[in-house]
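Q: What would this complex look like in 3D?
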Amino acid sequence: MTQTSSATRQDGASPHTSAIGRFLRATEIDTRLLGMIGALALIWIGFHLYGATFKGFGAFLTPRNLWNLSVQTASIGIMATGMVLVIITRHIDLSVGSMLGVCAVVMGVVQVQVLPGLIGFGNPAIWIIAAIIGMAVGTMIGAFHGFIIAYGKVPAFIVTLGGLLVWRGVAYLITRGETIAPLDETFKLLGGGPYGAIGETGSWIVGLLGCAGVLWLLWNGRKRRRSYEFPLRPLWAEGVLGTIGCVLIIGAVLVVNAYPWPKGIVRQYAKANNIEVPDGGLFISHGFAIPVLILVAVGIAMTVLLNRTRFGRYVLAIGGNPDAAELAGINTRLMTVKIFALMGLLTGLSSVVASARLGSATNSLGTLDELYVIAAAVIGGTSLAGGVGTIYGAILGAFVMQSLQTGMVLIGFDSAMQQIVVGSVLVFAVFIDTIYRRNLK
Amino acid sequence: MSETSMTMTKSAPVDRTGTPLVELRDISIAFGGIKAVDHVSLDLYPGEVVGLLGHNGAGKSTLIKCLSGAYQMDAGEIFINGEKAEIRNPRDARDYNIETIYQTLALADNLDAASNLFLGREITGPGGFVDDARMEAETRKIMGRLNPNFRKFKDPVMALSGGQRQSVAIARAVYFNARILIMDEPTAALGPHETQMVAELIEELKAQGLGIFLIEHDIHNVMRLCDRASVMKNGQLVGTVNVDDVTDEDILGMIILGKRPGE
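A: Here is my prediction, written as structure tokens for the whole assembly.
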């Protein structure tokens, strides 16, 4: 009896697993991507259930928390996309946190102390000038690092370890330790908050555009494959992919639209616009926060850069075999400079988001960010041996890191415990990744 | 006996009356006081295969890397079609239609065949984006000619066998209409069937008028594939001989003793 049942189970199991295998092959979904989404879901549900069981309230899977989570992820996520390129080419950048600090205080000084005197306080151009200067500073610092690494042949680890100290010191010298505030009102919108979000209608527009984009990608890919007579994905697989993509996007829109403005902000807004607040209160949705949209835009741009441009192809080739890349006529040194400059640019952008969110600039902004950024990239499947990494993985990795952090705060872990957990998770994730890769071969 | 039958199949003798395709004049390169290549001169005519022989460390690969742009020579001149050529890096070499198949194959293991084939010379479509579909189609075309059994177009080349990797490296050199081809031990990692494939390819390219430098350890292959053989020892050129005029033993003598036949 037992034997028959186990035999039937085995018989039943093999077509079952092959069905999953067939499904994955047909849809061409990366198993690693599935693993990461699974881990993320586990973290979310785990924290929620823990809260529901032991604290009487599951605070994790609420629109409010998920919205905040998305905003908190933006800064690390933006930098992680650049770190992917750095790590793919077998380098590392330990200085991003300090660079972020320098960019923030420079932007702070520019918009609080310099520009108001030049073009007048509250001038609508202040935010963009400050942001551009911040990103330019980041780009120059990054390029400078890249130059020393590529032409001076000093290992990236050392150059950026030095940078970690140097730029934090520079940030302190610029501010003398003072907090620079208040930042420009328009600038602050880039950090999120009730006013720094695009609202219900805007979110629907973005969501529908996103869905259209997903469907267009699938359709266009199919058309291209057909024109070269390559094997096509079965139609049902295309359908499944399209549906999953659209459901995720619409789901995100529903979540961010379900998070209303706080009562105080609503009252303020109603007063300013002469709107009568009804008795039940006014429900004004946040919608997607601007920093999240910046992260999405950066993610798309960086994915295109890595997968669809020569630059990206050379990044991968250098990571796979630097000598081969050199022999193929790629100027690997100049590439290194460009990659670090790009890392600097993204750090500058991230600095805009981080300081705008804080509403002020301090020389300690971004402390320890380098570790979170590197962890996000590595958890996202970027191999420290080089040559392998994805942008979406890094962004998911940033979400995983931030979810852990947020979740532990919600259930009341103290910061010592948080550090222990985050550090352990990083090592564990890379250990799992190593096993995964070994089995792949 | 088999030797004669091999030489019998060889194409017509090479015409060496015109301008050489490549002339290496008095090339020297030293690494930290060790003269890796010491005043070596070589030439190569269209439709000719010149074998480069010698022990490991004799300077063959180093010499040839001066031509492919991987190294920069300390002294000497390179002439392509009678005109002085400045080759400072691999990009320069490519501009002179010099293609190299390195012993290490120089493939990026994490990329697929098409990405490797077009590395540094990607086909781009509208907007300057790389056109992967078209590159894969082109790769399928040339692989259909070189290695019809090749199927793994989607896999990174680290998943390929030695022979398959070799055919990717060869396809890369052949696809871009090389006029001068440098092959560094192209058959070292191959089985007999694949070695035969490479031999046939060399014959075909030769017939198309390419000049080929072939670095080779296997005397048998040299006798079979090359028109001339140049032997190096301790960075110096022992001599260049017509393969038809000498025996295996003569060449072995040059390699081991560093003496020309008759010396």
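A: To summarize the key features: The domain at 2-97+178-257 of chain B is CATH 3.40.50.300 (Rossmann fold). Chain B has two domains: 2-97+178-257, 112-176.
Q: Very helpful, thank you.
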